[in-house]
Design goal:
about 190 residues; alpha+beta; Gyrase A, domain 2; 2 domains; 4-stranded antiparallel beta sheet; 7 helices; 4 strands
Length: about 190
C-alpha cells in the first residue's frame, strides 16, 4: 500500500476564517481557540489530495462510503487490464495457502476470457475484491477528521485501518494544527473496543 500526498492547500485560509469569526484575536490564537471550542467548520477551508496505490477493491469500497467532503477518482477495470505482468492482489494476513491457488486460477480464468475475445469490462466480473486498485482522493480536513475517528479504530478492518493511519500521518505532517485530536476517538465511541 502506498499513500502519497500529491497536493494540499495552505492552512492560511483556516487561520483567516478563524480571525474573521473572532477578529479580536490574532489568527494563530483565533484558530486554536476556535477549534478547542468545537468550531470544526473551520477545517473545511483546508484540503489535501492523495494518490493511493495497491489497496484492494474491498478496501476501496469501504473508503468510498465516506462521501461528504471527499472526492474520488478510481482506476477503471473496464479500461485497465488486471494482473498484467505484476503482483495484482492484496493478501489478507490470515490467508491460507489455498488462497494463492484460487487467486491464480481466477487470474487464468480472467485472461482466458480476454483471449477468447471478451471485453475487459465483461471479463472483470470474475475478478475478486482482493484486486489492487489505485485512487486519487481529495478531502477537506473536517471530513478527514471524521474518517480518522472511525477508521483508525481497532474495530475497523485491518486494511482500511492501515490506510487511515497512513493518511493521518501525512495530514499531521502537513497541517498539525488541524489534526491534534484523538484518533480514534475512543472516549466518545458508542462501541468500546
Amino acid at each position: 500500500m502506498k499513500v502519497i500526498v500529491i497536493d494540499y492547500t495552505s492552512t492560511g485560509a483556516c487561520y483567516d476564517a478563524a480571525w474573521v469569526c473572532r477578529n479580536s484575536e490574532v489568527p494563530e490564537h483565533a484558530l486554536e481557540s476556535a477549534l478547542k471550542a468545537g468550531h470544526d467548520s473551520l477545517k473545511e477551508h483546508w484540503s489535501i489530495s492523495f494518490l493511493i496505490e495497491d489497496i484492494s477493491r474491498a478496501c476501496s469500497h469501504q473508503l468510498v462510503r465516506h462521501r461528504i467532503g471527499i472526492s474520488y477518482a478510481q482506476q477503471s477495470q473496464r479500461h485497465v487490464k488486471v494482473g498484467d505482468g505484476h503482483e495484482w492482489y492484496v493478501t489478507p494476513p490470515n490467508a491460507k495457502p489455498e488462497f494463492h491457488q484460487i487467486m491464480e486460477a481466477t487470474r487464468q480464468s480472467y485472461l482466458a476470457l480476454i483471449d477468447a475475445g471478451m471485453p475487459l469490462e465483461d471479463a472483470r466480473y470474475v475478478l475478486p475484491n482482493a484486486c489492487y486498485t489505485t485512487l486519487v482522493v481529495t478531502a477537506n480536513a473536517r471530513a478527514l477528521d471524521n474518517f480518522f475517528k472511525l477508521r483508525c479504530c481497532k474495530r475497523a478492518q485491518w486494511e482500511i485501518r492501515e490506510l487511515a493511519n497512513k493518511m493521518l500521518e501525512r495530514c499531521k505532517a502537513k497541517a498539525p494544527v488541524l489534526f491534534k485530536g484523538s484518533y480514534p476517538d475512543c472516549a466518545n465511541c458508542k462501541e468500546k473496543c
